[in-house]
């Protein structure tokens, strides 16, 4: 029977944070972001953890990240505000602290901006460029034990329309043991309920209970 190896999906990713980030921002959320990988952008939230990043935005980008040799995502901390408007809001202000207040940046975003590029100087234009396009190089995904779901499993081609293994009649499969993946938000549960209903009905018929 052909299977694809199980791998973590809808999971956090490792980030080698500088210690200053963890001291200031471990456990803090980053809200109302745009997060991009390659040409794909999603809106959502992230959480800074001891190991890296968790949260809906990175879960949704998992398939793209897994396909990259050197996975990296880019964050826009102020997707609703253009660089020109940010420049305008900071035009009468002198220090980074004043700009960050004027831009209403969260403590976690400020910690990242100040801790990840400490030698970058205090140019307003540089700070705006960073907060609109902040790079985060990633290590690998977190282990399956921490993941919300898995990709991989028994290949669809091994199953007939009733979700019975063609090579092992009488064995029906449902849920995550089959090779599919979906985002969180009910899609995984719906996929499991749907395949479970179909497999259960078919198994019942197989046992000679056609009306079950
Ligand atoms: C923290 C968390 C949050 C989630 N949130 C969401 C969400 O918001 N929306 C969403 O759609 N999905 C969510 N999911 C995913 C969703 O719960 C799973 O996709 C779904 O439950 C998988 O169902 P399943 O039946 O395939 O596997 P499971 O639910 O893992 O069921 C497998 C069962 O098989 C049993 N079992 C294992 N081995 C054996 C054995 N050898 N013999 C007998 N029994 C065995 C296990 O004990 C278990 O009861 C979440 C998952 C987690 C972990």
Task: Provide structural commentary.
The structure is a single chain. By secondary structure, the protein is α+β, with helices and mostly antiparallel strands. The protein has two domains: about 15-135, no CATH class; about 150-205, no CATH class. It contains eight helices and eight strands, in the order E-E-H-E-E-E-H-H-E-H-H-H-H-E-E-H. The protein has helices at about 20-25, 55-60, 60-65, 85-90, 95-100, 105-115, 125-130, 185-205, and strands spanning about 5-10, 15, 30-35, 40-50, 50-55, 70-75, 135, 150-155. A six-stranded antiparallel β-sheet has the order 2-5-4-3-6-7. Strands 1-8 form a two-stranded antiparallel ribbon. A hairpin with a 2-residue loop joins strand 3 and strand 4. Helix 1 (about 20-25) runs antiparallel to helix 6. It is elongated and about 80 Å long. About 25% of the residues are buried. The protein binds flavin-adenine dinucleotide (FAD). The site of flavin-adenine dinucleotide has 11 residues, from helix 8.
Question: Characteristics of this structure?
Answer:
elongated; 8 helices; two-stranded antiparallel ribbon; 2 domains; 212 residues; 6-stranded antiparallel beta sheet; binds flavin-adenine dinucleotide; alpha+beta; 33% helix
Give the arrangement of secondary structure elements:
Layout: E1 3-9, E2 13-14, H1 19-25, E3 29-37, E4 40-48, E5 52-54, H2 56-60, H3 62-66, E6 72-76, H4 83-90, H5 96-102, H6 107-116, H7 124-132, E7 134-137, E8 149-154, H8 187-206
Antiparallel strand pairs: 1-8, 2-5, 3-4, 3-6, 4-5, 6-7
The site of flavin-adenine dinucleotide (FAD) has 11 residues, from helix 8.
